[in-house]
Automatic annotation (TrEMBL):
Gene Ontology CC: cell envelope
Enzyme Commission number(s): 4.2.1.51, 4.2.1.91
Species: Saccharopolyspora gloriosae
Region of interest (Disordered), ranges: 74-96
Top-level enzyme category: lyase
Chief location: other
Highest classification ranks of the organism: Bacteria, Bacillati, Actinomycetota, Actinomycetes, Pseudonocardiales
Protein name: Cyclohexadienyl dehydratase
GO molecular function, one term: prephenate dehydratase activity
Length: 328
């Protein structure tokens, strides 16, 4: 699993970067990130880059709300003593945000599935753990509220999120389908789909051509990007649905299924837990995908805050500290 140190450090807002800047396994980045110009109390991060293009209209509205001085940090309003207008307009009518609802409620509602380690897990006693569970708790602490984890499923994630949650966390992949309905935070992990199988079969299932053959049983959890991948890419192999993602790897161990194609991070975690299972080329997966937090559509204020928090936590050691016990 690779970690995104910064999604895009150059280019104007809305401009697609040449590619994510990656660091190896949880490596710490240096302090050498370029400083972003602060504008009207908001860091207009160039690293927000192309993903923010989706919210450019909302950003434009925010810019208008906070004043034209935002456009030029050397322009009128940049210096509070210059008598410019930016400061005045920033005290104008406040833009209502999920941030305000969270503060009033005293609670951050976090949708999570609890079935995808190392990111989210709910044990038999109902206790939650995982990298993204701890990260969500850290976000709640930063907001000065309690975190309430709201159990959801991959099939009902989008609907549950829209109705019941402020954020969804737990290995959520960025997809364009979801991006039509919600915002995403910046990505914090780059991953992709790769096979996991019993080790004696690892050489047999390296390519999709090898896997997609009659007689091969690929077990699949419903509702997420795994199922989408399997249904789009496997036509001759048998797709074996298994509804419980916490017991799905037992299907492979027992021999009832031959393999599963899932995210590299999960194959590594499960292979460490079950030595008879092998992650097949988890660092050269079949696909490119990113993990991010799902956020309310249109709420640029909350999105900006979450991105600032995430950026700092990726660089102050918090993310590494939380992730290390899960990834070794
Ligand atoms: O849908 C997504 O966002 C996911 O990445 C979740 C998903 C999936 O693709 O089904 C990924 C791996 C886990 O095995 C469970 C769920």
């Amino acid at each position: 699993m690779r970690v995104v140190a910064a999604v895009a450090r150059s280019g104007a807002i809305g401009e697609r970067p040449t590619g994510p800047i990656l660091v190896d396994e949880w490596a710490r980045d240096s302090d050498s990130l370029p400083r972003e110009p602060q504008c009207c109390g908001i860091a207009w991060r160039a690293r927000m880059g192309w993903r923010t293009a989706a919210s450019s209209a909302a950003l434009a509205a925010l810019t208008a709300l906070f004043g034209a001085g935002c456009a030029d940090s050397n322009g009128p309003g940049a210096n509070p003593e210059s008598g410019g207008t930016a400061r005045e307009s920033s005290t104008g009518p406040a833009m209502r945000s999920t941030m305000d609802d969270i503060a009033e409620r005293g609670e951050l509602r976090v949708c999570s599935t609890g079935d995808y380690r190392p990111f989210t897990y709910r044990d038999a006693n109902g206790a939650w753990s995982g990298i993204d569970i701890d990260m969500a708790r850290d976000l709640a602490a930063e907001l000065g509220v309690r975190a309430t984890i709201v159990a959801t499923t991959w099939e009902s994630l989008s609907a549950d999120f829209a109705q019941r949650c402020d954020i969804a966390a737990g290995g959520v992949s960025v997809t364009l389908k979801r991006a039509k309905e919600a915002f995403f935070s910046d990505a914090y992990v780059v991953d992709g789909k790769t096979p996991i199988t019993r080790c004696e079969n690892a050489a047999r299932f390296r390519t999709l051509e090898q896997i997609d053959r009659p007689g091969v049983r690929a077990v699949v959890n419903p509702g997420g990007t795994n199922e989408k991948f399997a249904r789009e890419r496997l036509h001759r192999a048998e797709i074996v649905p298994h509804p419980d993602n916490n017991t799905i790897f037992d299907e492979i161990r027992s021999g009832r299924a031959d393999l599963m194609i899932t995210d590299g991070a999960e194959t590594k975690w499960q292979a460490r837990r079950h030595p008879e299972l092998c992650a097949v080329h988890p660092d050269q997966p079949f696909t490119f995908s990113e993990k991010a937090y799902l956020l309310p559509r249109g709420d640029v204020v909350f999105q900006q805050f979450v991105n600032e928090w995430l950026h700092l936590r990726k660089h102050d050691g918090t993310y590494d500290r939380i992730a290390r016990p899960w990834i070794g």
